[in-house]
Amino acid sequence: MAEKRFAGLTYEQTVIKYKKAVGSLCLVRLKNYADAEDCFQNVFARLYTKSPDFTDENHLKAWLIRVAINECKNFLRDNTPLLPLKDVEANSVNFPENECDISWALLKLEPKYRNVLYLHYIERYKIDEIAEILGKKPNTIKTILRRGREKLKAIYGGDER
Q1: Which segments of the chain does DSSP mark as H helices, in order?
Q2: How confident is the model at residue 84 (pLDDT cuts 50, 70, 90)?
Q3: I want to staple 109 with a disulfide (CB 3.0 to 4.6 A). Which of 6, 34, 113, 155 is the partner?
């Protein structure tokens, strides 16, 4: 039986190559390691069972990110938290608060800003690519990005460093 391939990569190579991107996105969305692990596993299980055809690795990565966002959205919809999220400390995820890592500040943002900023600055997607992944217009993404930067600046401390 032939081994499944995704944009030329084996399943194992795909998991190794994209585990950080998918895992980080799930963690930023869910703010909880255990829940993020569950969604992470669901994303790669879906990849294996659905076995979609990809034109190239960019298509594969975009598909994984879209599925991860949907998995997290479904998880949040189906699992009402025992405490309101506003009562949970964003730093309970244990991201370091230092100059090199702004993940802790992203966790304090609303999901719509968090997703766009994460995809733009962490995953290095362009505005048009983010618009396609999230199913929004590029101008909407630009607005969310601008407003998100303002909110992030207020949280992170601005230009005072």
Answers
A1: 11-30, 33-50, 57-78, 103-106, 111-117, 127-134, 138-156
A2: low
A3: 113
Mean pLDDT score across all residues of the chain: 83
In order of their start, the domains of the chain are 1-88 (1.10.1740.10), 97-161 (1.10.10.10)
Q: What is the distance in angstroms between the CA of the first residue and the CA of the last residue of the chain?
A: 58
Between 161 and 17, name the one with better pLDDT: 17
Q: Which is nearest to 105 in space by CA: 115, 82, 95, 30?
A: 95
Q: What is the pTM of this model?
A: 0.66
- Report residue 55 as tokens: 């034109």
Are residues 106 and 114 in contact, defined by beta-carbon separation less than 8 angstroms?
yes
